[in-house]
Amino acid sequence: MSKRAVLEVIALDVEDAVAAQAGGADRLELVTDMAADGLTPSVATFAGIRAAVDVDLRVMLRPADGFAAGDVSRLVAVAGELRAAGAEEFVLGFLDADGAVDLAAVEQVVSVLEGCRWTFHRAMDRAADRNALRRALDGLPGLDTFLTAGSAGGVDDGLPTLLAEAGLRGEPGYGPRILVGGGLRLEHVPRLAAAGIDGFHIGGAARPGGWAGPVAARAVEEWRQVLDAGVPVA
């Protein structure tokens, strides 16, 4: 690869964050409750991690399992509390009952982020129409990344979609970086990198003991080395 790829690691606490940074992560996604696929962490958790590491932190704004926005006023309040505590980057994404982007909810939350950078997360992999979702979000302040596996089933199923979308870079809705995550494995990297994808997101892959155990710096380092080398995995 011609430039350093972004490696983002899911962190649940300070121990995870310190290990991920030591292994070479560029950015952390801060969440709690992975049994629900990642919900908003507490302000105290954010503050503790922010004090412990100096990499970029993207904080999840997700109130419950699933992709409904729920009580948007509460989400707005939580986002405001995190901003007041120093959070500068976020992760969010809401769908309506028909699988379309809940643009009203997204816009309300984004309005209190004051231009902060944010990722639209894997809700897009459950969308009824990915292209329509991208176009509906096009131009929203701060949106610079789509976290996606290309499919609700994960990268194995979604690889053709990811490669196709990489080829649409520059089209309306296709300006933000593609950050690949969801069943991502090292052997996927060469094809993704060859297509120009330079964002990679790992969770369980950074935890040799599974989600019951912490992030391991050595596991993150293996990913860092592969991404920096830009060569096929043996």
TrEMBL record:
Record field: transmembrane: none
InterPro entries, per database record: CutC-like, CutC-like_dom_sf
Residues of the signal peptide: none
Similarity-based family: Belongs to the CutC family.
PANTHER family: COPPER HOMEOSTASIS PROTEIN CUTC, COPPER HOMEOSTASIS PROTEIN CUTC HOMOLOG
Protein name: Copper homeostasis protein cutC homolog
Organism annotation: Streptomyces actuosus
